Amino acid sequence: MDTEQSNIPSQDTETKQDGREDAAVDAELAKDIMSRCFHPSRLGPEPWEGYIFSDLEIRIKESTDIYGAVLWPSAMVLCHFLETNQDKYNLADKNVIELGAGTGLVTIVSSLLGAKVTSTDLPDVLGNLRYNVMRNIKDRCKYIPQITELTWGQELDQRFPRATHHFDYILAADVVYAHPYLEELMDTFDHLCQEHTQILWAMRFRLDKENGFVGRFQQRFHLEELYDLPSLSIKLYRAQRKDRTTKDHRGTDV
Ligand SMILES: C[S@@+](CC[C@H](N)C(=O)[O-])C[C@H]1O[C@@H](n2cnc3c(N)ncnc32)[C@H](O)[C@@H]1O
């Protein structure tokens, strides 16, 4: 009896073991994701960072003056997921929109995976975004991404009417942080996400104030955690809207 009992792990031991296994999975996955980035061995006239996704080299030019001109690790997390989960999330010929595309890695990888991508961000960011996207997709993609302004919450009905704009996926990497447009961002998700749309959203956790966004998001959307990477403070979520119909700003079903 004594021997038997000593072989059964206590709940404490199991919890510790689970914790160690989770940490090992996190470390392994984070290492794999971060290993996709490399730096040129020789610096040329134009600095760039390299990434390997879909067995292809992707060169990204950053510029340090604005947020959107830097590539954030959440983008790599989302790209890694898309590349390694094509059986479940097949982007081929799918309509995809990316919010806050920044330097364009997620747009580029989605396009390499066969999606028809609408890549969006603030007007100031679009020049560098377009440059990166065009230099990397040339002769490699079935569809050329459309790069266009989308300032969260603005002119959604006019520029992206629900009757004609159906997206299979909304992609977003590191769009929730200390900026004053969190409600507008929520409205943008709400406007673009129709009954069958799936949101894939990589969230970097920084401050409690911004983290409250996740709770508010869950009031409107079903949320599933796909990756949990504490070592990077990043989670990847899949979401779908809770109500089956979408409403316009007057509350009318559309
Ligand atoms: C932290 S960066 C992430 C960029 C990119 N997704 C990545 O992970 O590398 C946040 C992005 O959101 C964009 N952004 C910030 N406020 C915005 C707004 N009000 N409307 C649209 N885009 C916005 C920024 O221009 C920037 O590209």
Automatic annotation (TrEMBL):
**SUPFAM superfamilies per UniProt:** S-adenosyl-L-methionine-dependent methyltransferases
**Stretches with biased composition (Polar residues):** 1-12
Q: Which InterPro entries match?
A: Methyltransf_16, SAM-dependent_MTases_sf
Q: Which GO terms describe its molecular function?
A: methyltransferase activity
Keywords, ordered alphabetically: Methyltransferase, S-adenosyl-L-methionine, Transferase
- Region called Disordered, residue ranges: 1-22
Q: Which Gene3D superfamilies match?
A: Vaccinia Virus protein VP39
Q: Where is the composition biased (Basic and acidic residues)?
A: 13-22
Tell me the domain of life: Eukaryota
What GO terms describe the biological role, i.e. biological process, of this protein? methylation
Q: Which Pfam families match?
A: Methyltransf_16
- What protein is this chain from? (Atlantic silverside) hypothetical protein
Query: Which species is listed as the source?
Result: Menidia menidia
